[in-house]
Each structure stands twice: as C-alpha cells, then as structure tokens.
Amino acid sequence: MSARRSLVLGTLLLAAFLVLGVFVSDRPRGLDALLGDALHDTWTGPAGVVAEVVSAVLGPVLPVVLALALGIAALVLWRRDDQRAWIVVRVLTLLVLCRATSWLAKPVFGRERPRDYPDFSYPSGHVVSVASTAVAVVVLCVLLAPHLVALVTRVAVVATVLCAASRVVLDVHWVTDTVGAVLAVGGVALLSGVALRLLPPVRRGVASSA
User: Fold this and answer.
1) Which residue ranges does the record assign to the Phosphatidic acid phosphatase type 2/haloperoxidase domain (predicted)?
2) Helices (H), the chain
C-alpha cells in the first residue's frame, strides 16, 4: 500500500472511530442493546469463566511483554552495530502509539460500562492491547521475516476476535467498544506507519500485499 493510500485510509478509520464514539456515547443502541440483553449475567456462568481466562491471556499484558522484548532486541542489535535496531525501535514506537489510543480516548467519550466496572468503556483497552500487539508483530514480520506474514496475520485476527468476544461475554464492554478499538488502532497504525517510514516498498510479493 502506498503512503498516500495509507494516509487516506488511516484518516478514514480514525474518523469512523470518532463518529462511532460520539454516536454510542450516550446509551446502548442496536446491536449493543440486543447483545447486552441476550448475554446479561452470562458472565456469572461457565462461559464467563472461559472468557475470564481468554481475557487474562489476551489483554494489556501482551503489549507490555512485546515492548520489553523489542527494547531488549533493539539494545542487542545496536551493540552489534546492526541497522535492524532502528527498525525495531520504530516498531516499538508504533506499538506505543497504537496502545495509547485507549488511554487518550476513554476520558474523552466517558462511556459507561454495561455493568459496574472500573474505568470507562470506549474503546476497549483489552482489544486495543491485542490489536496493537498484532499490528506491531505483523509490521515487524513484513520488514524482517516476510515468510511469516500470512501466518502471523491469521493468528492476529483470531486473537483479536477472541479478545473482543471475551470482553462482551464478560459484560464489561459493548460490541461497539471492541469495533471502535480496532478502528482506532488501524487508523493510528496506518498514519504512524507513514510517519515512521515503516511501509515496505511497493512491489510484487509478500511485502507489498501485506
């Protein structure tokens, strides 16, 4: 994808994130209300136990672990005078920028959770965490290990969907909270990718298609 297309798509995703946030900030509508009623108190049963485990594994711990790993890798590569160190540093910066979306946006929208729970609801911090980690790993693979891009992308999508589902089942997020998280991370990732020069050259093959 060219830098121009990335800028346009990134801007559209962020705009969609903001519009959705304004639209749902006052009360649950449509699918939010429907699933909220259908899954009410489901979190107290076996499904809630499974969702709790998924939520514990696929959540804020992931970007922290990845950030530490990237920091150590960058230091080791830098000491070896390996130019890949700067790629790792830029990917680490991308990770931080994507993860920051929930910290910055939640106080702005101030959306209440489906049930009593700390912090605001929009966007889902767990989904932002998983999506941010996914984006960083995929970008790293695009630049340093293109043969892994397809596999890592599939795993990233599955992990993000599982995380989103677990948060809805636990009744701590509305569906639109999880959708907004993906929109925000996608928008920030594309815009930051251009600014950090993380976009691969446009050519035939794995890197350009990714």
Assistant:
1) 87-193
2) 3-24, 30-38, 46-57, 61-79, 84-109, 125-144, 149-169, 175-195, 206-209
